[in-house]
Design a protein that fits this description.
By secondary structure, the chain is an alpha/beta fold. It has 15 helices and twelve strands. A six-stranded parallel beta sheet has the order 2-1-3-4-5-6, sandwiched between helices. The longest helix has 18 residues. The radius of gyration is 20 Å and the shape is globular.
């Protein structure tokens, strides 16, 4: 099978590029003839525009030789950019897989688009021969706005690392992701001094890239509690996932967090927001702790539950590991994706 896949450049710091890189690690490019085109890079507006234009030219040149076009799409600029590729693939009568990743497409659709824009969304998203979403809430939302009843829930997955020993009760917290208000960083920084009053050894390792300068200043003011470790990947990320016993992600909205899956695979106790696809991964009191988004008090209570009870931490961490092994392995994910591809070519 010949698959032409598009999405952000594989060097981009973000969830979609992480998913794509996991496909390569799992050998998808050895199972199919895969050509990946990066439509977006980080940097200036000019650099992004040049990348998009170059990607579209390459797409036009490659398109005739491929059977299926797999489009990884989010909201906002990602949707606006990818819609052109989808319309072009449709004009060439190609089979199209629309793979929706964005956690706040609903906000984009309801608050940023007018009637004409929403009408175009319905038309563009109806062009897919297969439509994949990360979790059941997105299946319901996209079904309502497009009228489709053939939307497939296709959760993200990771390669499961070897089981490693974990020391619980250390009070070492880890965050991985974009460092911005939408990830709940304000609330997290707000509760850290309050938690230190009871847990003097508490430490938060903040992994990611700052998107808002005011948050960077706030982190610098809390340097005794919070250590910014930058964007970590590969072996460096493994080190932090192994040594931290609690992973925290208090996002306002989320598609389905690959970083949560990685934390679960490393037997961390996960404290995360009850939003988007997270409840599909975290079952309250069974595989982690769910908190309400935008609520510092709920976040504080959730973290205290984990900090106060070492045995609970161990129980949740081990259950999280079992769940990710059973439901979110990349090998099973690739098998399902292959079946989707095969179904389109029958």
């Amino acid at each position: 099978m010949r698959i032409l896949m598009i999405g952000p450049d594989r060097s981009v710091h973000g969830g979609i590029s992480g998913v794509v890189n996991n496909y390569y690690k799992a050998g998808l490019d050895r199972k199919v003839e895969l050509c990946y085109i990066g439509t977006m890079v980080e940097g200036s507006k000019f650099r992004k525009l040049a990348q998009a234009a170059g990607a579209y030219v390459k797409f036009l040149l490659k398109l005739p030789g491929y059977e299926i076009v797999h489009v990884n799409i989010a909201s906002d600029a990602s949707y606006l950019r990818k819609s052109v590729f989808i319309e072009t693939a449709k004009a060439f009568h190609k089979k199209i897989v629309i793979h929706q990743h964005g956690g706040d497409f609903e906000g984009f659709y309801n608050h940023q688009l007018g009637a004409r824009g929403r009408k175009r969304v319905k038309r563009v998203l109806s062009m897919g021969d297969a439509f994949l979403v990360l979790a059941p809430p997105f299946q319901d939302f996209f079904g309502r706005i497009t009228g489709r009843n053939d939307i497939t829930v296709f959760p993200d997955a990771i390669q499961i690392p070897p089981l490693a020993p974990k020391t619980y009760g250390q009070h070492k917290l880890l965050f991985l992701g974009r460092i911005c208000k939408a990830k709940g960083i304000e609330e997290l920084l707000q509760v850290m001094p309050l938690l230190k009053e009871k847990y003097s050894d508490i430490k938060l390792y903040l992994g990611g890239i700052f998107e808002e300068q005011e948050l960077q200043k706030r982190v610098e003011q809390l340097s005794d509690l919070v250590e910014w470790i930058g964007w970590v990947s590969g072996e460096e990320k493994e080190i932090y996932l192994k040594k931290c016993d609690i992973f925290v992600l208090p996002s306002y909205f989320e598609g389905q967090s690959v970083s949560i899956l990685e934390a679960m695979a490393h037997s961390c106790t996960v404290v995360a927001s009850r939003t988007g696809g997270i409840p599909q991964m975290i079952r309250e009191g069974e595989t982690g702790i769910l908190v309400e988004p935008k609520s510092a008090e709920s976040l504080k209570q959730g973290l205290e539950s984990a900090l106060a009870d070492r045995e609970l931490c161990e129980e949740l961490g081990k259950a999280a590991r079992r769940k990710v092994e059973k439901e979110f392995s990349m090998e099973k994910n690739v098998e399902q994706l292959m079946k989707i591809y095969e179904g389109l070519l029958r």
